[in-house]
């Protein structure tokens, strides 16, 4: 076990290393995935990454609702 001055130096070195790692990380997978979800269903507020998936979702989950204008030309 480290004692005294060596222990303090080790703690400072570790704190600096942790701060560097946190700073360099920048972004994580969860925020990147959330940024990719750009289409939002107006009925249930679920989010989809692309118009094809959005149209498939809308046709299967909300068949009685009219199709939104942004999905009219999209092929599923």
TrEMBL record:
This is Zinc finger protein 706. InterPro entries: MBS1/2-like, SERF-like_N, ZNF706/At2g23090_sf, Znf_C2H2_type. GO terms for cellular component: cytoplasm; nucleus. Residues 17-31, 52-62 have a biased composition (Basic and acidic residues). Residues 1-32, 50-76 are annotated as: Disordered. It is found in: Cytoplasm; Nucleus. The keyword Mitochondrion does not apply. It comes from Denticeps clupeoides (denticle herring).
């Amino acid at each position: 076990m480290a004692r005294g001055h060596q222990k303090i130096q080790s703690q400072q070195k570790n704190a600096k290393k942790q701060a560097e790692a946190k700073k360099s990380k920048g972004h994580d997978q969860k925020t990147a995935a959330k940024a990719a979800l750009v289409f939002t269903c107006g009925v249930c507020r679920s989010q989809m990454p692309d118009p094809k998936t959005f149209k498939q979702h809308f046709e299967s989950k909300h068949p009685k609702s009219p199709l939104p204008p942004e999905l009219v030309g999209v092929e599923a």
